[in-house]
Each structure stands twice: as structure tokens, then as C-alpha cells.
Amino acid sequence: MKRVLYLFLLLSFYSFSQSPAGIWYFGDKAGISFNSGTTPVVLNDGQIDTNEGCATLCDENGGLLFYTDGVKIWNKDHAIMPNGTGLLGDPSSTQSAIIVPNPGNTNLFYVFTVDELGKTNGLNYSVIDLTLDGGLGDVTTKNVLLATPTLEKITVAKHDNGINFWVIAHRYGNNQFLSYQITPTGINPAVISSVGVSISSDTQRTLGYMKSSPDGKYVASVNSGVGSVMQLFNFNNLTGQLSLISTSPLNTDYIGGYGVEFSSNNKLLYVSNIDLDNFKSELFQYNIESLNDSTINASKTLIAQFDFDNFQEGIITALQLAPNQKIYIGRNNTSSLGVINNPNTVGIGCNVNLTAVNLGTNTCYYGLPSFITSYLDQSFTSSNYCTGNATQFNIPEIENIVSISWNFGDASSSSNVSTLANPTHVFTSAGVYEVNLTIITTTTSKTYTKNITILDSPTAFQPANFISCGTTDFSEFILSDKNSEVLGSQSASDYSVSYFLNYDDAFNNENPLATNYTNISNPQTVYARIQPINGDDCFDITNFNLIVNDNPQLLPDVEVFYCLNTFPSKISLSAGNSGAASNFDFLWSTGETSQSILVNTAGIYTVDVTDSFGCTSTRTITVTNSEIATLNYTIEGSIGNYNLVVNPLGSGNYVYSLDNESGTYQTSNIFYDLIPGEHIIYVKDTKGCGTVSDEFSVIGYPNFFTPNDDGINDYWKFTGRFLDIKQILIFDRFGKLIYHFNQNTAGWDGTYNGIKMPSSDYWFVAKQNNGEEIKGHFSLIR
Fold it and tell me: pLDDT at residue 255 above 90?
């Protein structure tokens, strides 16, 4: 109850009775005031000069605060505010500006502006602080861009909570409406509704007014140019979303639909149409009470027409609801305004007078000031629409009341009527009730009618805990995934679900969590609130936990090798999990579901390991072929300078060792300057597929020998089996043949005919079987 009273007090503050819209400045220094009664009084002190868009605002006592054409801002003394020039509206923009108070500070105001013809300045806002410049105000923030490009139209609707406001604009180039919620803490990001006709390519179609209904439940928009239409939308003032109700063509090429306005009872809609091709302007009335497209179009009634000359003088332009509940009509390039005297009356009985207000020496053009239409909603207010609870009703602010009579439209109730100013009523069941309030004053009698929708009390079903998986204690949760569990069998088209950090926020419907939410503790309790789509008085709350479980811990990804020389034998691949296999489910990319698998084919193998909480980790094992080498080598060079070049065959990666299988292996496949004699080459596969070897011989001869019978180096001969030598001839330095032998003998012992030859250099000729010869020399040392 404390919260409901608080909302009511704020709503009363911002209702201001008639005062915020009590003074209008527009056109060329034209002005009127409604502060002295129901008949407007002409003002001559305005400084504005604008073809179209403008806005004015007064305080709660009807005193002027400031006014603007979307480019300049004048204070209440009709002087330009400090920093009050260069705003990015345009005098030729249909609704160049509109003023919105900051819901949390009565001294701060936003001025929203829109550019003309879809130009790049788009939608901006500036901020005015009325505590500055001696209470006259100063522009502290200017031209903050919200969106571009946009149409020449902007309107404001009250929020469902009675505190905040919605600023509604429309992009140029598509069919997107942008709804910005204005809160005590600032401007929220736009809620986007892609609905209705798309406005693009023809900038003439950016013209035309957009208005919200006094009760904030509907938005009407007219688009000029070729294919001009009027469109009516439902506006959800809780969520900011628009949905299409009706589209009505206006059958003209230029200018087309321009002005639009709701009656104060929210049941009738008025649209002005400017047909320059046929030199006529028209004023139409639509009955929108049915909210049915065909019924609304069938109700279209021409209630006024004005034919004009080439100068467009007197054409019917803007339409604006006034504090006296009448709708005033802009008349281009004239010193007068028209009026719809009884705009709540269906048909021509609404009583149109096209010359009702004489502006004196001042001139009206196309535009009239834009206001927050809810300022002009003088009907009764109500709250709490939940079955079983008492719905609260409150009368509008009216003086000199003689009698009050309520009829709640609840024929089944024994207390269907009341004469109290602010009664409560418990409706017998859910449904739509037509509530009527009749107030008789000392001067008049007036009846107010509203449809009140009573909703079934929702039930918030407790969902299962929301479990996520990760490597830390924090994870992003899509909270809306729990909507269906919270709703149960209740329809998502009737009830909305939102989520909160604590119970108090959920109860007060404050600070809802973003749909994509990252937990701040593990586990963390969040609260879900279910309420009707069109109201927040009737709700229920439940809670559940956000829990982040660890993903299964697996061994790192790995590359293993399969030895082709072992085919068709198989190797084992393991999931690499820690903990008993019975605690997990396994799914390999092969389709197998065991903890390990056997393979004999190269490829990339993955395994998903899922624990009992549904958390999954994936391990990747890459199997690459390798194999033991097939030896292939050559010996290159000449005696004393032979190299071994190994070119193994196979798909493995190989290293090489000479004469020592257990020694150091090298990656180079070449061994240089081989020592003459017998050798073994080893080739090893680095992936473990095995080692192969082969023996080979390198031929050579010693450079000296010492035939002293000590058993060491006593004979000179060729060593190794690399060459096929059939005979060796030895000569002294004078060329005398002193010995000859073949390679299979022990060699020369250093004697000639049994005589020891002296120490000296000797020459040799080694003859090969292929006819080639090898020549050289060596030393005999004694």
C-alpha cells in the first residue's frame, strides 16, 4: 500500500491539472493562454518564428518556464537561454521539438529534437537546468545524438508506473519505431518495434505528426507524400512496444496526411489531409473504439473542408488537444485558429469552427506546440487490476463539485455503485468492465468512461535450478529460457516474466535484470516476477538458483602416431577423464560411446565427455601416420673424401646414427669424410615405429706403415670393400716395380726379394676390375 500511495502522489504531481499546457507559442510570434479559463486568451509577447515544430512548458501554477522551436530556447522572460542556440531541430520539421521533465528532478528538463526530411542530424536531446541563470535556466548539455536518420515526428507517452515517460520516434529508411524510457536516472536504450509501413526513398514521406493518446495506450502517426496513410497502433506503456491496429489511406500525392490528434476520451481520432493537387484541405474523424481495422476505416467521416488558392493560405494543418479538452486547428498563413468544440462526439456533432480564435497581428503557420498528451488526460485514474483485490479509483482534479456518481459496470456485484470521491471496488471476476464516473459541478455535468480490464491473479511456478557449465564460477545465463517454467500453462501473450536480484526489487518491479545475465556468486538466487502484459498491479514472485558447475577435467589435446608397418594392429585412444568412467557419458566422433577406442587409421578424433550435471568437455586426438624406414643410401666422393647420403623411403620422420645404435642421432641425412673400413648406418623413426640398419664398407689406404714386426701396422694394403680391386702394384721413387699383390692377401711387408726396403716414399697403382686405376703414394717408416 505504501508503494501504491507513492505512485499516486507522483502521478498527481506530474498531472499538473491544466497548467503544463496552459500557454502556447507558435508560428510568427503567435501565442495563446488557457490559464484564465476554458476560452484561450491571445498573447503578444512571444519571440518564436517557426513554420512548423515548436514546444512550450509551464510550471504547476501555469507560469511559463520556457519554449523552443527546436533550434533556439527562450526562457520565461522571452530571452534566449545561455547556450540556448544551435539545437539540431529545424523550423521546417513537423515536430521539431518536445519537452520532457526529468522524473527524478523537478528542475531538470529534456528537449528532444528531430531534423527535417530524414537528414543526418536525426534525433537528439539537450538538457535544461532551471536552477541556473537566476532561475531562468541554462542549457547544460546539448545535442546528444540518439538515432539518425529519423522522420519529422516525435511524441511522448506516460509510463505504466505513472512516473517515467516514453519518448517515441521513428527511423527513416525502414519501419522501426524507437521507444526511449525516461527514468529518474536517465534515458534507457531504445526499445525497437518494427511495425507498420516502411518510410524510405521519398523524404516527403517523413512529414506528418505522431501523437500518443491521453491515456498512453495508443499511438497514431500520419505519413505524407505518395501513399500517404494514417496508422493507429497499440502502445504497451510498460514495455515500450508498438503493435499495429489499423491503416487508413489518405488518397493524395502531395502533401497528404499532416496533423493528427486523439479526443480526450481516447475513442476518436482526427486527421488533417492537405491535397495541394486539388487545392483543398480536409479534416477527418475516425471512431477507433472498436480497435478493428475495417471498422475504423468504415467510420472515416469528413467533418470539415477548406479550399484554398495557390498561396496555401488557410489550409488545415496541425491539430492539438488543449487543457479545455477541445482540439485546436492550425490554419497556415492566417491570424486565426480553428477548433473542434466537442471532440468526444461522434460525427459532425463534434462541431468544427475554422475561425474560432483571432490571433490579432500574429500569424499561424503549419505547426502548433507539441505536449506530453498525458498532461491533458483529465479522466479518472485507477490502479490494482487483480482479481480478489480492491481496485482503487480517483476522480480528476475538478473544482466546485456538487455530486459524484460511480458505476463500475459490475452487474453481479452488490456494491456496483459509489458516491465516494476515491472509492475502491472488488470486481467479481476477471474481464473487461466499462466504468462510468459522472461529476456534477456548480456549472456543468460531465461523464467520464473507461474500460477497466481485471486480470486473473497469476501464479509464479518455481522452475528448476538453472545450471550452466564452465571453467570458472561465472557464466552467462539466458534468463528468458526459464519463462515457460515460470508461466506453466499461463499464456505468454497474457503475462510477462521478469527477473530480479532480490525480493524487494521483484516486489517493487524495479531494476530488472538483463535477459543475458552473468551471475555474481555461485550459486546465486534470482527472483522471477510474473505479471499481466498490460499492468503491474497483479503479480506473483518465485525464485530459483543459478549454478555454475565445472566442466569435466580432461587431459590436454594430443597428437599420436600410428605405425603403418604394424597394420592392421590398432592403437588405443582414451578420453583422458579424471574420475571413474561410470560418472560420465562418452561420445566419440566415430559414434562409439566407450571411454577408449581402438583405431588404425589416421584422422582427427574427438570425444565429448558429459558428467551427471550435463556439463561437457571435448578432447581432440589427432592420429598421424608414421612408419619404419626402408633403407636407401649412396656413398659419394673419392678415396679419402667419401660421404654417406641416406635417403630412406617411408612416411616417417627420421634421424640417423653411424656405428652406434645407442649413440647420438643426427637430423642430417649426410655423414661427411668417412673413415675407411666397415660401418653400420642406423635410421630411427622419431615417432617410435622402429630402427633399421645396414652394413657398408669404405675403401682406403694408410698414408704410412711401420713394418717392424711388432704386430702393429706391419703391412700396407687397401682397407674396405667399397671398390672391386684385382691387383695392386708398388714402385719405388725411381719407378721400379718392387711388389705386386691382390686385395685378398695380407699386404706388402716392406721387403723386396727378402730384403727390407729402406724408409722412403713409395708409389702404388690399384687396378680395378672395370679397368680404372687408382694411383697414390705412402711412406715406409722404420
Answer: no
3-class secondary-structure state, position 760 = strand
128 within 8 A of 145, measured Cβ to Cβ? no
Residue 478's closest CA among 513, 512, 515? 515
C-alpha cell at 399: 473544482
pTM over 0.70: no
Task: Let me know: does 591 contact 569? Beta carbons within 8 Å.
Answer: no
Beta bridge partners of 546: 466, 524
Which DSSP helix (H) or strand (E) runs through 449?
A: strand 445-454
**Mean per-residue pLDDT of the chain:** 90
**Measured on CA atoms in the order 377, 381, 385, 387, is the torsion positive or negative?**
negative
Burial class (CB in 10 A: 0-12, 13-18, 19+), 663: exposed
Q: How many CA atoms lie within 13 A of 543 on its CB side?
A: 14
Q: Please name the amino acid found at residue 53.
A: G
Strand pairing partners for 698? 677
Contact 722, 768 (CB under 8 A): no
Residue 5 confidence (pLDDT) above 50: no
CA-CA distance, 251 to 229, in Å (whole number)? 8
Return d(Cα 591, Cα 204) in angstroms, integer. 63
Residue 765 has pLDDT above 60, yes or no: yes
C-alpha cell at 416: 456496483
- Show the cell assigned to 366: 503549419
CATH numbers and ranges of domains, the chain? 2-376 (2.120.10.30), 381-454 (2.60.40.10), 466-550 (2.60.40), 558-626 (2.60.40.10), 633-698 (2.60.40), 704-780 (2.60.40)
CA-based radius of gyration for the chain: 49
Q: What is the reported pLDDT for 723?
A: 64
Distance CA 280, CA 197 (A): 26
Amino acid in the structure at residue 435: V
Q: Which residue has the higher pLDDT, 493 or 23?
A: 23
